[in-house]
Design goal:
Number of strands: 5
Mean pLDDT: 96
Distance between the termini: 20 Å
Order of helices and strands: HEHEHHEHHEHEH
Strand content: 15-25%
Structural class: alpha+beta
Length: 200
């Protein structure tokens, strides 16, 4: 059975060897990312996702912030060098999408719908995960490699300050992307019997 959607999501892999050999302009990439997030579902159609897109020097600035912040956590010079090399690999890409969730909106929903109040924080996490997956897949379909990173919360204060991000936007993930300079490694899967139960 052929299913185009399933074929497309299989293109989405974690690509760590990325570069700047991308044919798309920042404007074209912006439209792809905006469309992917705009059409991603959210609980109560709350649209809690808030996005910052960084290209060129701003993209590099972000990864320099990450690198400088992580230095304080390095156990020794060798560990620091390994971390620098990893972060430099991300900086070699063309852009980064910062995914935030609007906490004021989450609180407003809790107040409006007290019966479901305890669930809205989790539903917010579901919403950002879907937005991340949609964006990642949309880029993969365009032949652009990406990987999802999570350097929050240690970088949060500096990010908010540098790009004047509202305090009620909570950073959840960073999707870094660029040209695919080396393919993803082989992916293994658990046996279906361990993951799925089917009753007829």
């Amino acid at each position: 059975m052929s299913n185009q959607f399933l074929e497309l999501i299989q293109k989405r892999r974690s690509i760590y060897a990325i570069g700047r050999n991308v044919q798309h302009s920042p404007e074209q990439l912006t439209e792809i990312i905006k469309s992917a997030i705009k059409h991603s579902p959210s609980a109560f159609n709350s649209q809690t996702a808030r996005i910052v897109m960084l290209f060129n020097a701003e993209h590099e600035k972000f990864w320099n912030i990450v690198k400088e912040t992580l230095k304080q956590f390095a156990a020794n010079a060798e560990a620091a060098a390994k971390t620098d090399a990893k972060i430099n690999g991300f900086a070699a890409g063309v852009g980064t999408v910062l995914f935030f969730e609007d906490q004021d909106l989450v609180k407003n929903l809790q107040e409006q719908f007290p019966l479901y109040a305890q669930h809205f924080p989790a539903w917010s996490e579901h919403s950002t995960a879907i937005a991340q997956f949609s964006t990642w897949t949309a880029l993969a379909v365009e032949g652009i490699g990406a990987s999802l990173q999570h350097y929050n919360p240690v970088i949060d204060d500096k990010v908010h300050e540098e790009w004047q991000i509202p305090a009620h936007w909570k950073l959840r993930a960073q999707l870094v992307f660029g040209s695919i300079e080396a393919p993803a490694g082989e992916k293994t899967y658990m046996d279906d019997a361990e993951r799925f139960k089917v009753f007829k």
